[in-house]
Input
Amino acid sequence: MPVTESKLFRIQISHDRLTATLSVNGDSLPPACTAGKIEAEIQPFKLFLNEEGRANIIAFAAKLAEHAMPQPMVIAQGDPPVHDENGQIELLYKTSQGDAATGEAQEDSPQSFYERSNIQRVRAGQPLLRLIPPREGQDGRDIFGKPIARKRGRQAQLSLGANVRLEDDVVYATANGKLEYSGERVSVSDVLEIAGNVDFSIGNIDFDGSVIVARNVLDLFKIRSHASVTVRGIIEAAEVQAEGDLTCQGGMTGKEKGLFIAGGTIETKYITNATVRAGKDVVVRMEVVNCDLICRGALRIESGLLVGGRTVATGGLRVRTLGSEACVNTPVEVGIDDNLRQTYLRVAPEIEQLRRKAEKVRQIVEPLLRNQKALNAEQKEKATELLYNSYDLEDRAEQKIEQLRSVQEESRQYCLEEVVVLGEVYPGVTFRFPRLEGIIESPLKGPIKFIPRKVEGVYQIVAVDCLSGSCFSIHSGPTSDTWLQAAEALLSGKS
Amino acid sequence: MKFLLVDDSRTMRNIWKKVITSMGDNETIDAGDGAEGLKVFLEQGPFDILLVDWNMPNMDGLTMIKKIREADKSTPIIMVTTEAEKPRIIEAIKAGVNNYLVKPFSPDALLSKIQETVKKTEAVS
Output
């Protein structure tokens, strides 16, 4: 500690120059002197004395006047600097577990462990982070009255990646996606890449962009994507829904619980015991076994097997082996649009009900219209209402017919009434075309094509040998499922 | 087109509105009696066509039409009413009604009445 001495006194100065302590120089008691004299004695040291320091000098002088050795006394004190606080980043988003900034749990946070997703989803326009500027401190002052500079605060460091923008110190997402924030860099990714399995460490996924899973999707987990889903491993008894394509490089093992839905194409190695829905084609390299499979495009298993389950392939079927030697029941519908069927089954009873109601109203209003002169004003008003109601009901029925018509027109571009078997087809296989159904009664060798064709004035299912061009009819007849005829009658106004 | 619909029955006004909107992208403003109809006509006009009931509280449709015709001779008016007697129809036409539809009527009848009135107005202008 630096020391400054006069003849009688010594001043000890702290290293930080914030404290000066007065004591007697040497062991012997100096002659009594007044506070003024002490101040004059230490004046060359140019200490910045405040009221408290002066009071201590008076106390020090009083001790000397009593011929007592005074204890060292602090006679000058500086003000320590208050350093700036560095800038900070405030988190403005909420995690699935709760508030990201406070760590407080959300009251409605999901209880299922499957639902506890660790993926931070954000929406375009959502505020993500706020940059808080450094908070200013205050410079200090030493015992000589000289300023002590405070440490300056640093701005929070944040670099902006893709799909974010900075406005008025707030970072906003500019796209829907996954928030990636490392503390120094923030971005929003429209592709979600899972490095391992979709399991309890990841939780269920509901994502706006594409999802890529490097390994497997385990039992009972769910993935939903508004774009495509790609799984490099296998999908087990999970629920995977993609508005775009669904690609699974391993296979899909549904275990009776798997649900695989794609708005686009599904492409994989195999599918077993699962429910499968595709807006376009389903392309499988090895086999489809015991699946409830409906695709609006074609089902193609050109080097593999289709056996069991129920298959509806609107755009036709192309397969190496169809059915099995064990004659497993394998119903196949082709050229039939399940979407049209479902729409018809839904709207037909509604149309029927609306028409029945309209007819009932008409039966009430018609006698009134025949006797208009006998009606009073109120009855005339009521008759107008009833008349309008019957028109309105018929109009609503007509709208539903139009809805069905637009689905029918759309389905025409998908439908292909054709089954091509490249290898073998076995008994147990049944075909259903829009107006015909038939069965395979004995094994047949391919390449062979099954199509509906008029033979001697009668529609039948015909097997065409793709190599020789020869053809023969298989056991077939009009389909027992007559919804399509009923739908066509409805659309043509015949029912 | 911009329609003013004046009838004390909300149901009837809704029926008119549905028929008018089925014709295309039309604007409708409605009033529940003749006094309100007159106020709306003066404050929120001009309108392309008026549909007016006869019997209403506060001010009946005929009085309202007479007052409108004092200031405006050209806006087409269709009277839609239960009054079916010939002298009443003549009275309405004298007051300035362009077309007349007797209740009960079907939506199609209203539609063709409106179209007929529009066509006549276009031919005159």
